[in-house]
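Folding problem:
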Amino acid sequence: MCIISIKKRGVKFQTSETIATMCENNPDGFSMVYQVGNCKPVIFKTLNKDKFLKQYNFITSMYDANNVSMFIHARIKTHGTKRIENCHGWKADGLIFAHNGILP
């Protein structure tokens, strides 16, 4: 099953080691949706663990955790194929969401 981590504003960032463990245990795609202050949310997706961890470390070094909300999704392929389109962080009806399980 996929791993989803949610970080609210005002809560410290998870350690890079924790995020790396998520990615190592669920290696089939990675996404991060983050919002700094009232800016538009950013969706970052990749199939490359090292690229994902580099982006995460960049975000945590550039922004104050008190001003950032985010969720991280580490995918394990249970259905579908291993491709970027299956990494969570989707937009629908004005929402950006991730889920655990199967959606038709």
The chain has two helices and six strands.
